[in-house]
Structure formats: structure tokens, C-alpha cells
Write a structure and sequence with these properties.
35% helix; 25% strand; alpha+beta; 260 residues; Ribosomal Protein S8, Chain: A, domain 1; six-stranded mixed β-sheet; four-stranded antiparallel β-sheet; 9 helices
Length: 260
């Protein structure tokens, strides 16, 4: 789950107050790992905090929610745990905690630690009095070190790291939608016009995903989109178009030829 800011010019969109000289709306998306399709979407003003939307969601018991530090809320972590919902996030660098126990890790997999911790900060300990799991991981490609926080003690430490890595798919979703579905420039300037255009773009994304699934041809969604754009005013069978079947010129009407 993540959110992305869509920048707007404040002089053109005065209703989208965000900063002193900048306007924006924020797109919040919950991406389902199975198929990487948006399962939850809402749009708020640019000032809306990510975790405020996160708290409103009801996840099925047993779900694993991958979130970044923008969703940091210790009381919410405790609530998720009480409801049987797992989370994977990054631990804030200034978090105060003590280590309760340590587990061995396979350093060849990039793991640096696997610990059970509990918070020691006065307010934090009250908001989140439960024990959590702290996992250290160093990316072998970039060399960057990450520290993850989770309430899941059953999955392996490397799996926890991979779950957080999969969170990058929602970033790719935002990038794809912004680049291919024209939500950087808007036809109308009213709030309703902007929201309508964003919702239409998301509906198109789902339709493209459905077409890709139905066609089973291995074409990317971008290839499908380009084909549809180039043949928008052609009356063609959709699957034939995706397969690349020749359109075939229409045979002349024999009755028409008889009149010549």
C-alpha cells in the first residue's frame, strides 16, 4: 500500500490547496500481490496523510500489508496485530527499543540480523506494548542496508525482506499510470473534472489488465494500449488485432460491379 502525489498548478486549480504556491491531490492505492491489481483506491487532497487513509481500511484476517515509513503509527501496528493482520515496514532510525532475543541468520542471503524487540520509548511503549520482529538486510546489488519491522514471526527473515521488496510494484503502478494514462495534464480545472479523469484512467488500467489476461498472448499492457490507440477508429475484432491477424481488404460487392 502506498500513496502518490499528483501535482497541480495552484493558480489553475485553486481548490487543490497543498502548499503556499503548489496544488496537489493524493492517490492512495492498495495493490493486491496476486496479479498486482489495485484492490483499494481513494483520492484525497494533497495534505492528507498516508496513514490516515490506512487506518480506515479493513483487511481480511491473515493479510500481510507492506508499507513504507510514511505509514508509521505504533498504535495502528498494535491494532493490526490484535486483528490478526500482519505488516512489513521499515523501522525508523530514531526508534528506541531493546532486544529480547536473537535468531541466527544466513549472511550469504544478505541478512544481517533477526531479532525480537520491544519499544522502550515512554509514548511508543504505551501505543505498541507488543513484541515485534526487527530484521536487517543488505542489498547485494546496491549495498544499501535496510532494517525491517514486522509482527510476523513465522515467515523466514529473507521472505520478510522479499515482501518489502515487492512493495516496489505499487511504485511501478504509479509510474505506469502517470506516464501512459495522461493524469499529469487535465482537460478540466474543476475538482470534479480532475477526479473524473483520474477515475477514468484507473478504469482503463483495469480494462487493459483484463484484456491482457484474456488474450494470453504475452503482450505487455503498454503494447496493448498502443495498439488500441492506433486502431481506435477501426472496426476490428479485438483478439484478431492483438494476435496481429491481417485485417483483410473488403471484397467488392458483386452487385455493385454489375452496375458499372
Amino acid at each position: 500500500m502506498d500513496a502518490s502525489t499528483i501535482d497541480l498548478c495552484l493558480s489553475v486549480f485553486p481548490w487543490a490547496d497543498f502548499r503556499t504556491t503548489k496544488g496537489a491531490v493524493k492517490l492512495h492505492v492498495g495493490l493486491n500481490h496476486e496479479g498486482y491489481l489495485p484492490e483499494f483506491v481513494t483520492i484525497t487532497d494533497g495534505k492528507g496523510h498516508d496513514v490516515t487513509v490506512g487506518r480506515t481500511l479493513t483487511f481480511p484476517k491473515g493479510s500481510i500489508v507492506a508499507i513504507d515509513k510514511a505509514y508509521n503509527d505504533y498504535a495502528w501496528y498494535n491494532q493490526l496485530t490484535d486483528k490478526g493482520i500482519f505488516f512489513v515496514t521499515r523501522l525508523k532510525t530514531n526508534a528506541r527499543y531493546r532486544v529480547i532475543s536473537r535468531r541466527s541468520v544466513i549472511k550469504e542471503k544478505g541478512l544481517t540480523c533477526d531479532q525480537t524487540i520491544e519499544f522502550t520509548g515512554v509514548l511508543t511503549a504505551k501505543k505498541c506494548p507488543i513484541q515485534l520482529r526487527r530484521i536487517g538486510y543488505r542489498d547485494p546489488v546496491t549495498g544499501k542496508h535496510y532494517v525491517f519491522l514486522s509482527n510476523n514471526f513465522k515467515l523466514s527473515a529473507r521472505t520478510i525482506a522479499d515482501i518489502y521488496k515487492a512493495r516496489w510494484q505499487v511504485e511501478l503502478f504509479f509510474k505506469w499510470v502517470k506516464q501512459n494514462l495522461k493524469i499529469k495534464s487535465f482537460i478540466g480545472t474543476s475538482k470534479n473534472a480532475v477526479l473524473t479523469q483520474i477515475w477514468i484512467a484507473l478504469c482503463i488500467y483495469l480494462l487493459l489488465a483484463f484484456i491482457k489476461f484474456q488474450s494470453k498472448l504475452g503482450k505487455s499492457m503498454q503494447q496493448i494500449l498502443r495498439l488500441l490507440q492506433l486502431n481506435l477508429f477501426e472496426k476490428r475484432d479485438l483478439m484478431a488485432l492483438l494476435r496481429g491477424d491481417p485485417s483483410g481488404d473488403k471484397q467488392p460487392d458483386t452487385n455493385q460491379l454489375a452496375l458499372l
